[in-house]
Predict the structure of Arylsulfatase I-like.
Amino acid sequence: MITNKLGLCEYFFVVCFLHYFTKWQQHNKGYVALTSQLMTPLHVRDCCTSDLMYNGEPVTVEVNSFESELVARKVNEIIKKHNQSKPLFAYVAFQAVHVPFVEAPEEYSKPYESMLGKVNEERYKLLTMISALDRALENIVGSLKEAGMWEDTLFVFTSDNGGAARAASNWPLRGAKLGYYEGGIRGPTLVHHSSLSSYVSNKMMHITDWLPTIMSAIQCDENLHDIDGVDQWDAIKDESIKTPRNTMLINLLPNSSKPKKSVMEEYKEEMKIFNIGTPAAVRKHDFKLLTVPTHGVWTAPRESTIVSPKPATDTKPLELYNLANDPYEQHEISEEHPEVVKELLEILAEHQKRNVKLKHHLDKAGCSENCGPVLPWLD
């Protein structure tokens, strides 16, 4: 639900000197930004152009520059030049580690040559990319320490989803990226600040919660109206405090189709509440409901000793799990809890009322007149 035009970058520009380094274009005036990879309905491999920009202007880099190093150098430059009398917010979204897998510079590949010998080429590239990302993060943290800013920095490292099928293992969680099982939607996160104690949290948190949470952490009293996120800062600071979030819409596709006639007959009562032919997932407390579930296999590590949890053999049009008792989503319990199914379907139905159908419209804007770079052409 979008009820406010302001997003994370707009809010933090009000209170901080903001920089963002990301694969998502956010061309708003007033930001100092290094951006790349314009995302459109076109497949990324269909494009052969440049969209790397700084402050809205195209920039060129040396041939064979590696993105993780390039972004880290720019972030470090910003940190060193920053006026410490003013706050700083930096949103840094590396494209690594992501397809297409490309081999990182030689300094990152040498250790794997001696340690592993000949391995699968794609996995070899993946390992070098991970090492390059580790080094980039090490350099950014090092720059913050050198500048005397580390003790006052709230540092958040997270991901947007689980690993992709056949490219990663989310073991022992079930599922992969693009699906709604826990392996596809959980993102491991590290939060560091000098005032925080160490513990491992399994509290429920949604990506939209980061905006109010960080605003609370920096004691910003900017009034947040009609946002989807909730402030989780107290729950992060104190292990004993419960999360203020008890419900989470995981996903709900606006474009749907009716299920097969046999499914409609079997789930006649459920269909009166919500079209279960719509790919969706929702969670309330420990109960999680999925409709049209996909990407639900377990991708185990390669060790031959792995025997459990066992791979899924089948899926149902509608599934319910209790994540407290069954974190690996092995035991489907919708028939045992019809009242929970009804409640969760009603939540999906309410969200569906405000949903907007997707329209993939390609604007016929070329880039040849700009010598190749992809630039924003609409306000």
